């Protein structure tokens, strides 16, 4: 395997052909899986947004044999990696990649709705805030009543960072692109949930000052 330059993911990723390997995914995938299994639907259609390398999709779909997991990413290199991971995994309940841009009103999967769950891991802080708005609008449209939206990543709380490292990370994100940044759960995210008919269900502290946050469609 060789190294590929830093891109949106903010990390050096090894690759083997089209297949990308994320160091952060290797570190956090088990912790995310464990929380997911406790808080999210175990059956039905699950839609992953911003699937990155595809490693999380494989790991979670393998743990949820009764769910239909569909993943994808708007980035072409990410989709190539996702396709390679899906092909190698050989899981009958895992499909993709889609190319959903959450800022668009039509995601192209409306014919598959309603979904039992929508998942977004490490996306909204490395995208313009319009992506967070679009994600919640889509969840409001496409989730079944009682369906759940799962977010993972760093968040500030009530206007304050939860750790000095997150404050430094926020500054580095904004220096790279002023439209990016660590979002505040109470001030930025909860209003989006309320606007789109979702209620906060769970906030779980995760390693490295991250959070898993789960919302339920009213």
UniProtKB/TrEMBL annotation:
GO molecular function: methyltransferase activity
Assigned keywords, A-Z: Methyltransferase, Transferase
Keyword Transferase belongs to the record: yes
The keyword Transferase is assigned to this record: yes
UniProt xrefs under Pfam families: DUF938
Biased composition (Basic and acidic residues): 1-18
GO biological process: methylation
Annotated stretches, region: Disordered: 1-24
InterPro entries cross-referenced by the UniProt entry: DUF938, SAM-dependent_MTases_sf
Protein name, per record: SAM-dependent methyltransferase
């Amino acid at each position: 395997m060789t190294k590929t330059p830093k891109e949106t993911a903010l990390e050096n990723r090894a690759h083997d052909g089209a297949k990308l390997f994320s160091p952060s995914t290797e570190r956090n995938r088990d912790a995310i899986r464990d929380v997911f299994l406790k808080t999210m639907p175990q059956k039905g259609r699950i839609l992953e947004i911003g699937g990155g390398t595809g490693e999380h999709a494989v790991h979670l779909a393998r743990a949820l044999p009764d769910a239909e997991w569909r993943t994808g990413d708007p980035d072409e290199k990410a989709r190539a990696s996702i396709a390679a991971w899906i092909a190698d995994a050989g899981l009958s309940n895992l499909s993709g990649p889609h190319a959903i841009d959450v800022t668009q009103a039509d995601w192209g999967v409306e014919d598959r709705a309603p979904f039992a769950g929508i998942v977004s891991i490490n996306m909204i802080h490395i995208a313009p805030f319009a992506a967070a708005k679009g994600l919640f609008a889509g969840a409001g449209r496409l989730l079944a009543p009682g369906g759940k939206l799962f977010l993972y990543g760093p968040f500030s709380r009530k206007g304050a960072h939860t750790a000095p490292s997150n404050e430094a990370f926020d500054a580095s994100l904004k220096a790279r692109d002023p439209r990016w940044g660590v979002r505040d759960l109470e001030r930025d995210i909860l209003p989006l949930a309320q606007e789109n008919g979702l209620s906060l269900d769970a906030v779980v502290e995760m390693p490295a000052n991250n959070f898993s946050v789960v919302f339920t469609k009213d």
